[in-house]
Write a structure and sequence with these properties.
Oligomer: single chain
Number of strands: 3
Structural class: mainly alpha
Largest sheet: 3 strands, antiparallel
Strand content: 5-15%
Strand order of the largest sheet: 2-1-3
Radius of gyration: 24 Å
Order of helices and strands: HHHHEEHHHHEH
């Protein structure tokens, strides 16, 4: 009975991770949209029009009001609200993930491997689909101030598609292989092993674990290289802001490593028996 209750609790925790992860992704997308709206008002033409309205307001001695100021202020508040909400939902998801990891002390290795693999799969999904970094290129222009020349904010999956479109096939394939395909295969393999531990194929997967263990940090290295690639200075001021997708991806890497060790230990014990 206690075991069933524990399973129900962990299932609810996994559902909570999925819900908070989804909300974090939605808020991150809304934050991205609000930022894009503000960026449109920071091109040279829009800034020139805004400055003209500012001067008109000053010279009219209060007879003319620059309504654009209120619109931009409301959009900035909206941007901050979505950003804060996205971070909060991410923290909630990470808190529930910690509960899954602490379940190691009350579950068998097989049970922990199963639930841990499911949690890792959720982290991987949101790590790949949620925005991972926002990059803007700025330039200070006389009389206008800070002008935004370009703005980019994409998920890992979206960035891979963009790289393919731009002809950066080698970079796109490298990120696709080490940040999408290998992690996905690894997660499904761990799930398979936890469900079919007695099968001969499951024991053969041990060699697979040892082989990809050598590449356990390559996905982190690839994403780090990818971020540097995005934020490279192209002659103007580049500003980069980490978004929630990166936190989910890093959480996947940590959980995946722990669950892999658990699966390896589980199969080793089963083989000795």
């Amino acid at each position: 009975m206690k075991q069933i209750i524990l399973y129900v609790i962990l299932s609810a925790v996994l559902a909570g991770i999925g819900w908070f992860g989804l909300k974090a992704s939605q808020e991150a997308a809304a934050y991205e949209q609000a930022t894009a709206t503000l960026v449109k008002q920071m091109n040279p033409k829009a800034l020139a029009a805004y400055k003209a309205k500012e001067w008109a307001e000053k010279l009219s001695f209060g007879f003319y009001t620059n309504t654009k100021r209120k619109v931009l202020s409301a959009e900035r508040e909206k941007q901050k609200r979505h950003h804060k909400a996205g971070i909060c939902y991410t923290y909630y998801a990470m808190g529930l993930l910690l509960i899954v990891l602490l379940a190691y002390f009350v579950l068998s290795l097989r049970e922990f491997t199963f639930f841990g693999a499911l949690a890792a799969g959720e982290m991987l999904y949101f790590g790949l689909t949620a925005p991972i970094m926002m990059v803007t290129i700025h330039k200070e222009v006389a009389y206008l101030g800070d002008v935004v020349l370009s703005f980019e904010s994409k998920s890992v999956v979206g960035s891979i598609a963009k790289l393919f479109e731009n002809g950066d096939t080698v970079v796109a394939l490298t990120i696709l292989l080490f940040s999408v395909l290998i992690p996905a295969v690894k997660t499904f393999a761990i799930l398979f092993v936890s469900l079919f531990m007695q099968s001969r194929f499951a024991h053969g997967v041990v060699k697979f674990f040892k082989m990809i263990g050598k590449w356990s940090m390559v996905d982190v290295f690839v994403v780090a290289t990818f971020l540097v690639y995005l934020t490279v200075n192209k002659g103007d001021v580049s500003r980069a802001e980490v978004e929630v997708g990166l936190y989910f991806f890093l959480a996947y890497v940590i959980v995946s490593m722990l669950v892999s060790l658990s699966a390896d230990k589980m199969l080793h014990r089963h083989k000795n028996r």
